[in-house]
Amino acid sequence: MKKTLFILGMLFTAALFSQTKLYVHPDADTYVANTKTIAILPLKVQVKLRPKELKDFTSEQIVEMGKNESLDIQKGMYSWFLTRKKRGTMLVDVQNPARTNALLKKAGIDIHEYDAYLPSELGEILGVETIITGFFETSKPMSNGAAIGLAVLTGGMFATSSATMNMDFMSTTDDELVVNYLKKVKGTLGTDAQDLINKLMRKVSRRIPYTK
Asked: What is the pTM of this model?
């Protein structure tokens, strides 16, 4: 009886510390079939530091930290998808983030502020059929520079590590939401952005219609 209660307790705890929600459009397979390339835009990132940590940074530095995190996560997601492409489990191509960001900047768009544009407008600029946008929140910076700087200032002490990713796959043909993936994790996030992305994406990879 005690063993059963212990197992149930562990399962309940795991559910609290790791939550996943996934929405897939009823015609997702059709959207995927009509997609040749997807582009990953920099996600909106918020690094939620404790008050003791915040006092060591200006508001401008916090904003810059979020932008650096965003670019690192963008690269981490690209690497994750690229690995699956090489394995033959990715059904579409993924645009290199360097090209994505360069095309946006050339069009006069701030890569961290593109909300005023429709997916169809961004897709025309980028030459892709699907874009990935979304929001990311973390209590611990994962980009090397920010993490090292904060560790020095705080003596290596962080709040309990947690992260939330809310990611949208948007069709650029009709501005329709094809997939929404919400993942919350708490605990060991890894050592860098790539570790974090691997952890966030691992369990859902076979449920996203762009992979098999």
From this structure: 0.81
